[in-house]
């Protein structure tokens, strides 16, 4: 079998959620957008609900409708994109809580679904989603009279604790929401770690739950083991892979493993990446292909059946460094071709 095996440790994931929960005195939600950061919302969300999560966040209404079918009636499901044209039946039937981002969305919501729950998303400086201060001033009294479930905003630089933007956004959010009755939320994973000032009534961690930075105390959640298809000896001067980008300087034993960029193993990681054969670190040789990667197994005396790309020795943030990206992208890129299995939950 040449199918790589992706193992998702739901116990570690729930432990991470609990650890983030323990860092604040307020309710801890769970962000499960993008199929739970690629890990499988049908398994991740029930595990988190069992661990105690009661409020879930998704990016779009379609994800919310799917999540409602998975989790049943007893949780709140909030949608960051708010109420978009065409969303009405999904929001109504799945009892979603759209985070209203503009006066237009507000009008569409109250006209289409009078009395249906909603939240408010405010822009405190990131300029991505949410109402700006002027728009919010115009709508504020009308919106608050209808008792929004949550009033939220999002931090642009929370992974850099000393960034001046954090305080600026905190002040902007407080200025826009001081004294309101509705529950408030500002913090994702990074915001949870910034401390109590940022916690308000609800936190919304995602990446930390899935084992990624900036939550450096997170337990690793994913491991990825890739079968070795064949190995060979190459002589000094021979090359490996497309474009002959790697040329042997000395006799080298090369193993070819069954994964590639079609599986979300970023081609850009190239020769900075390594895998592990037992306790031996094996460098990637040459270019990562669509389905195959060559690795240096010269130091390995007994070839294991699989090598580890993610696991004990290296996690999503190591791969992110090699690919000049972030752990979030490593997770959400994980391919559909893996044999996925879940531990615990
Ligand atoms: C994705 C997202 C989160 C979760 O962010 P993490 O950094 O993964 O914890 C929270 N709030 C909003 C608005 C988001 O888009």
Automatic annotation (TrEMBL):
Keyword terms: Isomerase, Pyridoxal phosphate
GO MF entries: alanine racemase activity; pyridoxal phosphate binding
Record flagged with keyword Isomerase: yes
Positions with a binding annotation for substrate: 128, 290
Pathway: Amino-acid biosynthesis; D-alanine biosynthesis; D-alanine from L-alanine: step 1/1
Entry keyword Isomerase: yes
GO BP annotation list: D-alanine biosynthetic process
Active-site residue list: 33, 242
Cofactors named for this entry: pyridoxal 5'-phosphate
Reaction catalysed by this enzyme: L-alanine = D-alanine
Enzyme class: isomerase
EC numbers: 5.1.1.1
Gene3D superfamilies, per database record: Alanine racemase, Lyase, Ornithine Decarboxylase, Chain A, domain 1
Domain named Alanine racemase C-terminal: residues: 221-343
GO CC annotation: cytosol
PROSITE patterns: ALANINE_RACEMASE
Stored PANTHER family: ALANINE RACEMASE, ALANINE RACEMASE, CATABOLIC-RELATED
NCBIfam families reported in the protein's UniProt record: alr
Function, in words: Catalyzes the interconversion of L-alanine and D-alanine. May also act on other amino acids.
Family statement: Belongs to the alanine racemase family.
Stored HAMAP family: Ala_racemase (MF_01201)
Official protein name in the record: Alanine racemase
